[in-house]
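Q: Sulfurtransferase TusA family protein, please. Structure only.
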Amino acid sequence: MRRAARRRRGGPCRCGRGGSVSGGPVSGGYEVDARGLRCPAPVLRAAVAARALPPGAVLRVLATDPAASVDLPAWARMRGHTVTANERSDDVVVVTVRLGG
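A: Structure for Sulfurtransferase TusA family protein:
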């Protein structure tokens, strides 16, 4: 039913399939692995993780969707967070965000 509703609105469902998403603490912060997922999944995963973390925490998001290098910094600005790094290594985009209040 959901899929049919998306089709009626126009365009195919763009939710990512394949790849796993996991989050967990890493040295100096928290990491969300959104590799293999397409827009808007990396931003949504980052938003969920950010809600569970205190202000000042560092969130690192790994994604293979090229749009993540633009979408994640835009999300961070809208939410009052600071992007401390936006890098691309091979096919992986790595965006590091310091969470604001």
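A: Brief note, in case it's useful. Residues 1-21 have pLDDT under 50 and may be disordered.
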